[in-house]
Amino acid sequence: MRVIFIAVLMLVLCTGCWDLKEINSLAIISLAGVDKDPESGDLLAYYQVINPTGLSTRQSAATKAAVYTFHFRDFSHGRFTEQTGTSMPRRFFTAHLQSYLISERYAREGILDLINFIELNPERRSSLIVFITDSPMHTVMNSFTPLDRVPGRFIRALSNQYKPNFSMSVYPIRFKDLAKDINLHTPTILPIIHYHGEKPSSNSDRVEEIDASEDGISFKVGAVLIHSRMVGRIDEQSKILFFIMNKKYRELTETVEIKGKHVDVTAKNLNVKRKWIKPASELSFQITGDLKILNNQQTSKMTVQNLHLIEEAFNRKLEERVLALDQMGKTKGWDMLGIQDNGGNEKTWRQTKVTIKVSSRMTTTGNTSTPYLEE
Questions:
Q1: In the CATH hierarchy, which fold is given to the domain comprising 242-364?
Q2: Fewer CB near the terminus (10 Å): N or C of the chain?
Q3: pLDDT in tens, 46-72
Q4: In angstroms, what CA-CA distances link 358 with 15, 243, 291, 316?
């Protein structure tokens, strides 16, 4: 009897799940975006809240949208959580936030205040991936996406296509990466989201169309950020090459020309080693990788000599492209090869001579060594 009394007493003293959150009382944020008014300096925040009934297979015509977008205006990041209570009938909840979008004009002004807000707030997730958008934020945040009805998941899935080829399968575009590299001279490269269309596809009929590229979201070019400020943009190939040379990415697709014919190859397991040549005014890069033929338009039989020609052509082209990337960066003042952060002089890094040596080997040629020819 005494044991039962003690047990009941202990239950009375228990507080229960004091931090329990009812799912129906939460506004679950899937995608967030932030812009900045260049005239007033006010911040414009956008939040996409998941609509559970919109994700259900059994839904009425009035609940087709998988998410609803709310937007707010204020002068400080910390004020938006309180503002959400003015129009969201549920509690603001960011634990399932997929991605974060930043407008290009805000990025060019500098996003140090946003990085500090994310890093210092324990309720925010610094592992969130970040994108720059060169399209109007209102347009991007109010458009349906194909194959995945939740835009936040759609955008994150785009970045996941690249993750397996990054070191430790981590795409270095998170808030924690921005914070870690903020004092480095080597730029940070973020993907730029672009919306193809003149107006948002905010009607659910958009997903019934077969042309998924029309009025859709994609990213190809990269935004160059130095010390948390966007200073320019680079094309997709240069973006991938930047990650390779800074030992963050391991794969590259290239087209070489052999006797007037195109050969598409993929280089895998790319490894980059750098070495300073004394005195420290010349930096040498050694690049190795395994080649795989994707498409061969040659009409001649695949021989050992022919394979060597492909290897040599790839080596030569990659060397030229790395030197072009280095020269472009030095012209613009962007240390694309990380010279200053790897032993180079901050004042004379532009005068550093860069030499490239690429050694590749063909490992996969396809199912046939002789191409099919027209009779």
A1: GMP Synthetase; Chain A, domain 3 (3.30.300)
A2: C
A3: 999 988 766 555 544 444 678 889 999
A4: 65, 16, 12, 8
